[in-house]
Amino acid sequence: MEFSLSFYRPRSFHGGNGRIEHGARSLLRMAMSTTCDAQEILVLVTEFLEVGGKIVVGDMLGPLRKLDLFGYGRRLAKAAKRFDGLVERIMKEHEEKARCDTTSMLLQWAMIEIINHPQVLKKLREELNSVVGTERLVKESDVKKLKYLHAVVKEVIRLHPPAAFTIRQPAEDCNINGYHIKSETRTIINIYAIMRDPETWDKALEFIPERFMHSNIDQCYLNLKYFPFGIGRRSCPGSSLALAVAHVTIAALIQNFDWKAEGGRDRVEAEEGPGLTMGLTKPLVCYPMTRLNLV
Ligand code: HEM
């Protein structure tokens, strides 16, 4: 039995031609955008294959199986625990990354749209001058008075939602726009498309923060037209933190600096890249020129 099981072992891992390890790395990169745990996962898979087979032999011992005479059950449980820990760690790293990515994507798209719309930058400056002045740095407590800044951020996340999709699973069968969805079906909700729907939004693809100056945003939420942070019990718990960071950072960047695009140009060329956090195809490059030097 031992001999026949050895056939299933990832031999290149032991033998060293690296093909299995290379395959594991490719799979890991595709599934989890990481490769650094490939070696450890291979060790665990080898352990599962080896000990799993031996447990089948142990099964033949009938009631004695429970005694785990050869210790294979314990080895398997240990390997499963290590595997769980590993997956948990990878998930946590991803969660952390998604949290940082979303806020940083919001900041990058905000700067792109503001640089590309000088009239918006001018209005933001006028608001900052009248609310904060030019003698001190904008503070978090000023933010609630900066109504136009709020409208700019809302419009940035409407056009470039840092989390473009979310998932729901209906508890019971339901019908959405004539489509019958069976209960428990994992259903992807395209937040990006909903917030660009021309039936809801006038000039849907244009950057017009003014649309949020007088609109009833709660109504948009209720009608499921605008929900960059998701909706309901599973909506984003980090939304207040993300918005607090974004508002005060953008305000400080606008208050203190003038901005030029790469090569001294006035416009930033930016394109949405693939991925869940609305990344850019190329990193944003722009240059600040000190305007005020406030602390
Ligand atoms: C601009 C920044 C952000 C955007 C646009 C955003 C957006 C979202 C969206 C759309 C969801 C799914 C909600 C749903 O399905 O209804 C979500 C979930 C989540 N977000 Fe955010 N997020 C942002 C920043 C953050 C930050 C800074 C944190 C943590 C500090 C965070 C933590 C989470 C967590 C833990 C969940 C999962 C909630 C659950 O499943 O119950 N997010 N986020």
UniProtKB/TrEMBL annotation:
Its cofactor is heme. Gene3D superfamilies: Cytochrome P450. The keyword Lipid metabolism does not apply. The keyword Transmembrane applies. One of its GO terms (cellular component) is membrane. Pfam families: p450. It is a single-pass membrane protein. It comes from the Eukaryota. It is found in: Membrane. Coiled coil: none annotated. Signal peptide: none annotated. InterPro entries: Cyt_P450 (IPR001128), Cyt_P450_CS (IPR017972), Cyt_P450_E_grp-I (IPR002401), Cyt_P450_sf (IPR036396), Plant_metabolite_P450s (IPR051103). Keywords: Heme, Iron, Membrane, Metal-binding, Monooxygenase, Oxidoreductase, Transmembrane, Transmembrane helix. Heme binds at residue 236. GO terms for molecular function: heme binding; iron ion binding; oxidoreductase activity, acting on paired donors, with incorporation or reduction of molecular oxygen, NAD(P)H as one donor, and incorporation of one atom of oxygen. Belongs to the cytochrome P450 family. This is 3,9-dihydroxypterocarpan 6A-monooxygenase.
